[in-house]
From TrEMBL:
It comes from Actinocrispum wychmicini. Keywords: Repeat. GO terms for molecular function: carbohydrate derivative binding. InterPro entries: GlmS/AgaS_SIS, GlmS/FrlB_SIS, SIS_dom, SIS_dom_sf. Pfam families: SIS. Residues 26-158 form the SIS domain. This is Fructoselysine-6-P-deglycase FrlB-like protein. Transmembrane segments: none annotated. One of its GO terms (biological process) is carbohydrate derivative metabolic process.
Amino acid sequence: MSHASWEIASQPDCWRQAADLAATRPTGLPQPGERVAVIGCGTSLFMAQTYAALRETAGQGDTDAWPASEFPTGRRYDRVVAISRSGTTTEILRTMAAVYGKTATLAITAAPTTPVRDHVDHVIALDFADEQSVVQTRFPTSLLTLLRAHLGQDVSTLPAQAERALVMPLPGDLAGFRQFTFLGTGWTVGLAHEAALKTREAAQAWAESYPGMEYRHGPIAIADVASLVWMFGDAPDGLVDEVRATGAELEPSLLDPQAELVRAQRMAIELATLRHLDPDQPRALTRSVILT
Ligand code: F1P
């Protein structure tokens, strides 16, 4: 069994721990009304995007998500939050070093003793969700559980939903798909991007992701009978029929979109297995990107 499979299966327990952590009201998280930037790379960026949409929708204040490498240092924020499992990603360290002391800063990481701690006011440790696999699964979803709880959402049913996601069937005939597209709206756009990244990283498969309404504006042209189109959350009006008309298989959201991501993680690992790939060691990837 791969580390990734084991880590995916441990998510119900990790999400319970994340909810418990949220109940302790850890210091450093954004306060209502603050203007906030959240930065990350790869998976961590997609969680930043997901959280930003959730926070704005909750009416808690302007929230921007930036790739750490593209952070606009000239903009004023009340707080900058870095998401980094490893706490060692170069772009994260450079950006946090640039803003440290000028605004409130927080790092959320699985590795609280790593260099990121030298560039922030507060560190929130999700060490219980750290991972052996290069491919991230339980760290981002545990982080999201923490952040959703902090925004006031009831996360108590999420672990049970993750348990269902671990046993529910995956889309049929995986070997027959040549191309995968993940769609979302609002906060689920980041989840769709993360599902596509998992599919690329673990299985080296052709995977794309878009906001649902954008999919009509060109990308749908690649859909055919060998495509799987997976909707995170509710589909925009008419889109299901338009996708089916291409011959593609449409996978609807059956669970809370965060739990739906667990199903997509499982699919990525199963695809990797079908392709005789090691999902723990994706080609050309390492646990974090450290530039010299
Ligand atoms: C993020 C990252 C991802 C990549 C891979 C390994 O690192 O490099 O960009 O997709 O999953 O981790 P981190 O800053 O969250 O440690």
